[in-house]
Structure formats: structure tokens, C-alpha cells
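Lab manual, section 2.4: Encoding a predicted structure.

Procedure: take the sequence of the chain (161 residues), apply the prediction step described in section 2.3, and record the output as C-alpha cells. A sample record is shown.
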Amino acid sequence: MKIAVLLFVAYVGYALGRSDLRIRPALAAVTTLVAMILHGLVQLALPHDGIERIARAVAWSWWSPTLVVVALVETAGMWIPVLVLHWAALRTRIWAAAYIKGAATLEAFTFYQPFDAHDEPHPAYEAGLVLQLVIASVPFVIGRIAKRRQRRAVASQLTAS
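Recorded output:
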């Protein structure tokens, strides 16, 4: 399951590279601020002891896809503002929210299926988002190059006609 989520994060990086990156800086800053505040509120409101028991119980079972739901609920404060607020084109917002969901899911799988025990009460999703940038950055660059080539091909066809 971890490999599938890792490939998903890489694909999302590629899709973000191919998307329209016209971003409204002021609204992007507001979105980031709202996401930070909302994520903090969600983290305070969630019953972490219950989530922890469920996640640890299903981590190694055939119910491990339940960890995807755990990650989505625990990071809802991040991906909902990214998806809803109009800081970029819709397609870009969808792929950015998908990146957050994929990176959070990978962090949940890493945390709840550890090689050693963790002392933290829940996964460090924020750190996971930053770490997954390493995985998503190469496909992102490849997506940007592919989009640039596509634009050049279209421009050359227009000048040829």
C-alpha cells in the first residue's frame, strides 16, 4: 500500500507540473494561514486516543486502507481550504489537495506501521508534507518540461500555418 501511495504522490507531482500555475499570491497566503489555523483546530478537536487505537489495530491488517481515512480526517484542516479557496485555477487546487492527501496518507502508513515505536501522539503530517516534496519534485519538473514542449509544439504549428 505504501508503494501505491508513493506512486500516487509522484503522479500528483507530475500533474501539478502540467497544471496552470497562475497563482494569486495574496489569496495563496490567506489560504496558507487559514489551513494552518484550521489544521490546528481540527487537531485540537479530534479524539486522538480513539483514532490512535483504531489506527494501530488496523495498521497491519487487511483493513490498512482505513489509515487513508484516518489521514484524510486528521488533515482535513489543510486540504479543505486548499481545495475551496480560489488561490489558483481549479485544476491546480485539486492537484494540490490531492498532494496533501497523498502525502498525509504516506505519513500515516509510515507512522502506524513503524520499524520502531514512536513517542508522538499522532503522525507529524506537516513534516510529511515537506518530506514528500522530495518525491514529488522530480515528476513536477518533468511535468513542467512536458507542458513547455506542448506549448512550443502548438506555437510552431500556429506559425507554420
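Check your result against the sample. Residues 125-160 form the longest helix (36 residues).
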